[in-house]
Amino acid sequence: MPKVPSFSPVLKNLTYIYEENLNKETEFGGSNFGGYPTLKQRDDSYDIRESMNVHCGFVKGTKPGHETGFDIDNSDLLEMEQCHGVVVASAIFGAFDNMLQPKNISKYSEQTVCFYMFVDEETKSDLETEHGLIESKKIGLWRIVVAHNLPYTNGRRNGKIPKFLLHRLFPNARFSLWIDGKLQLLVDPYQILERFLWRKNATFAISRHYIRFDVFEEAEANKAAHKYDNASIDFQVDFYKKEGLTPYSEAKLPITSDVPEGCAIIREHVPISNLFTCLWFNEIDRFTSRDQLSFSTVRDRVAAKTNWMVNMFLDCERRNFVVQQHHKGVLAMLAQMAPPAISPPPPPLSLANNPPRTSSLEIASVSPKHRRDWRVGSR
């Protein structure tokens, strides 16, 4: 691990907006959790300067996780503040996925890396039934943290909070690795950080989509798969188009893609990468929860002011360190579709009444010069 934090271009001091009395009279979008920033405030947040104060979730209450929505027990918050190095985090809401234990983790990482799984009450109950949740609040490597008073009715949208705002939940952590609840970690976290951040002198890394590179194509694919209502997707893409979003082409090189595969995020918690995830979260809070649609808009607007860039690596490289499992509902459906078990064959008849016959495989193994001595019996 590097001894000192990486350089943060332009931005040095980042603070966050707290609003006890929210003004909902904004142009459109926003929430009680993320606030209701006006379009003027949104534009101002992309004017990168040395000191900034921006919306970044948790706009109410004294600190993240305390009377802000996505509330966390004080004992857990105190434990999370003690994480000063690397945090690996994931989340399961609505008992949507099976909890998967990391594999191939070194003893050093077991002792120094913070592994946190965020869940809701439903998932907690499910884990208690399946695994038994003890006083230590740990199941395997994962420390289980229950989030109360969830701000959104949709579990996927609630999952965006720890996904993008880990720097707010773990104020003293230096690095983080986020993996979606459907993923199982197969490689030691320090190896992943070395490969995608430290070796590249990067502070943010994410894999690009395995098929699509273009936001407009991604939007159509989301509509075809009914990932979100079509009118909201069209509204968001049209909004970005008016701001200057264009289809991906080779003219954008060295940018290799406008669409990430957002299930794993590797980052260093320095001001510029923290700002990037704050602004990305704000777009998700204002528009649809499909984070692939807003990624390139935020990335390019931040890069235009700072020359800061995301390390976008191949998705096959991502699949070298995590493996994807089916959601619980899909697993249940596959179990129902499984073919019935085949009964074992009847035992062979007595050898006395049925002398052994040479199989075709045995015949094939006989050398060619002796094969002519064998005679195939009648049926």
From TrEMBL:
Superkingdom of this protein's organism: Eukaryota
Residues annotated as domain TOD1/MUCI70 glycosyltransferase-like: 14-327
Start and end residues of each stretch annotated as Disordered: 343-379
InterPro entries from the UniProt entry: TOD1_MUCI70, TOD1_MUCI70_glycTrfase_dom
Signal peptide: none
Residue ranges of the TM segments: none
Database matches in PANTHER family: ALKALINE CERAMIDASE-RELATED, HEXOSYLTRANSFERASE MUCI70-RELATED
Protein name: TOD1/MUCI70 glycosyltransferase-like domain-containing protein
Originating organism: Gossypium tomentosum (Hawaiian cotton)
